[in-house]
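Hey team,

Filing this mostly as a record. A colleague (T.K.) asked me to run one chain through the structure pipeline before their review meeting, and I want the input and output archived in the tracker in case anyone asks later how it was produced. No errors, nothing strange. Just documentation.

Input sequence:
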Amino acid sequence: MLKPALRSATAGAVLGAILITAGCGNPPEDVRITLCKDIAAVRSGGPISISAAEAQTKGYQHAAVRVRYNSGGTDGEVVCYYDYNAVEHTAQNLADPLSAYSTSPTRVTVGGRPLSRAQLADAIKRAMMKQGREAIDRAKGAVQQAIGQ
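Output structure:
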């Protein structure tokens, strides 16, 4: 039987491992695509259904992530532009071409219209807050599952 202090330390270590695993797992898609989808969601103002999300790289110019969605029966499109920011060519850039581009868009168009700087900053902030809430919810779920509730 474990002593109370050792049992508490073990439980803390297990809880910490669960939280780290819940928040830092391998994402199923590139962060640029996920962010652009979340920008589409916060800009639409309601639930959306993603019909397509694709990324194109334009060499040293930029990468463009195009997200097509439907919200309340209306089709929409958001395009997020990410600047090239690789200092040098690496094997990582060859294996994952999007890794050569910034992780925050410098320009976003919604329905073909560019967002102002203030609108872009607000959209990024709201999308990041959405991602944070989702990460907390995943961590809570993992903790509840680990402790058997």
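Quick notes for T.K.: The CA atoms of residues 11 and 147 lie 10 Å apart. Strands lie at 49-57, 62-71, 74-83, 107-110, 113-114.
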